[in-house]
Amino acid sequence: MGYSEDLAIEKRPKMRCNWASKSPSYFLPVPKPAHQESAPGWLISKWTFGARGDLPPVHLTWYDGNGNKRPPLQKEHNLPDWPEATLFIGSKGMLIADYGHFKLYPEERFAGVRRPQVARKPSHMDDWIEACKTGDPLRPGTNFSYAGPLAETVLLGAAAFRAGEKLSWDAHNLKITNNPEAERFIRRDDYRKGWTL
Questions:
Q1: pTM score, two decimals?
Q2: For 8-56, what is each residue's pLDDT tens digit?
Q3: What are the domain boundaries of the chain?
Q4: How many C-beta atoms surround the C-beta of residue 185 within 10 A?
Q5: Could you read off the pLDDT of 147-189 as tens digits, one per residue?
Q6: Is the peptide bond before 13 cis (omega within 30 degrees of 0)?
Q7: Residue 2 phi, psi dihedral angles, 5° rounding
Q8: What is residue 51's three-state secondary structure?
Q9: pLDDT of res. 127
Q10: Are 7 and 67 in contact (CB under 8 A)?
């Protein structure tokens, strides 16, 4: 998701990991004129994922690009300034993590907590090849049931940036419900002819 200076912030009252199983209900980019041919040097984006059963909605803010646009919480709580990280904010504390480090705050509450040991896979490429060989669609660590909704979320962010306004999203019908003009960022009327052998 973006460049090596990304920092994502997610606020949720309960630490359960099924929030991403629901598509975002809306996305709002921080206003900035869209360039027609490239992504911006920085972008602050906000998504809302609706309630899931007894769990409340999840609000996600993504700080992408330029390191000068870091979230205010980072300075307020003296959080590490890692080149790439994700910050989770819960009702009892915060977790900041990247691919090799993590820190829990407040540190005194979580003293002694160790990182769980998870079996490492050789690489994304090896994982993908093994999935192709075995025919197991759930084999890859980022299988399509996970990667599909994640890609949908990020691409919806790009569509909202191009539209320059908040978009409401109907994931079941793959349709923007509040801006018919923005549909051009979701699908085209004409596609080039496909490949043939």
A1: 0.67
A2: 333 333 223 333 445 565 555 555 677 777 777 777 788 888 888 998 8
A3: 7-185
A4: 18
A5: 788 888 888 888 888 888 888 888 888 889 999 999 988 887 7
A6: no
A7: 90, -150
A8: coil
A9: 78
A10: no
Closest CA to 153 of 53, 56, 8, 22: 22
What DSSP character marks residue 66?
Answer: -
Percent of the residues in the chain that have a pLDDT greater than 70, as a whole number: 77
In the block, residue with structure tokens 């300075």: 75
Q: Identify the three-state secondary structure at position 158.
A: helix
Q: How confident is the model at residue 109 (pLDDT cuts 50, 70, 90)?
A: very high
Amino acid at 4: S
Per residue in 77-103, pLDDT (tens digit) is 888 888 788 888 888 889 998 878 899
Query: What is the spatial distance between Cα 27 and Cα 165, in angstroms, rounded to a whole number?
Result: 8
The number of CA neighbours under 13 Å toward the Cβ of 111 is 2
Architecture of the CATH domain 7-185: 2-Layer Sandwich (3.30)
d(CA 140, CA 70): 32
Residue 122 neighbours by CB distance under 10 Å: 9
Instruction: Dump the DSSP string for 69-84.
Output: G--HHHHHTT----SS
CA distances from 133 to 124, 126, 139, 151 (A): 14, 11, 10, 24
Q: Considering only CA atoms, which of 191, 189, 183, 168 is closest in space to residue 24?
A: 168
- HEC readout, 173-192: CCEECCCHHHHHHCCCCCCC
